[in-house]
């Protein structure tokens, strides 16, 4: 990935979203061509010269101090994820050039697998950084049936999101969830722009999905470790579930996705129905395996 180009587009997008009024500046100079901040206004807010900021926005971050970066964070009113992304891009742009590399697929340890199975009442799925399910309990597979087709390999969640029309029915808030997926991948790209698997996935999705290509070009970054999803499940109907993405510290690159419904709600009733359906399916499968 072209880190200097990413820096340029990221900073351009950030200053375009802030008006002088929001930044606390008095707007002068007549009609503005764009609603966002001009380069000289960002420079003023960050306490650097316009020429210096312009060099930074063009992707040349060599020699830029941490204090200047934090001044830029304040000037552009960056959130935690955007701040981390800016520092990641700076390290990538100023460090030695590294060749693309293949990162090993994280493996689920027997203890983590046992933990996931023990969470019988909670849908649980262990995902790689790129959205590949590598372990799950029965309720997790039942909650996301399209990701776990019977007798076939599991589906990558990003490919399912953008390349499988079923996802637009399953996710009632598809646009929100899809944009979150793109912004999460942007964070990964900043953390390691040499990741060959990530580069290949981004290239595939950008080629085959207009929405992905547009949102990827927007350089939005957000972290999504918790939130709410609105699902239309093919068996139990509509569900509103809170989710938590829990990092598995013993296995870097893996997160444990868990899903809960608010007690005493229709979604809780639907989850209970899904638990009963999952248990019934398990009994049917067990009977089929043990029958003579």
Automatic annotation (TrEMBL):
Entry-linked Pfam families: HTH_31, MLTR_LBD
Boundaries of every HTH cro/C1-type domain copy: 36-83
Molecular function GO terms recorded: DNA binding
InterPro entries: Cro/C1-type_HTH, Lambda_DNA-bd_dom_sf, MLTR_LBD
Superkingdom assignment: Bacteria
PROSITE patterns: HTH_CROC1
Transmembrane segments: none
Protein name stated in the entry: Transcriptional regulator with XRE-family HTH domain
Source species of the chain: Pseudarthrobacter niigatensis
Lineage summary: Bacteria, Bacillati, Actinomycetota, Actinomycetes, Micrococcales
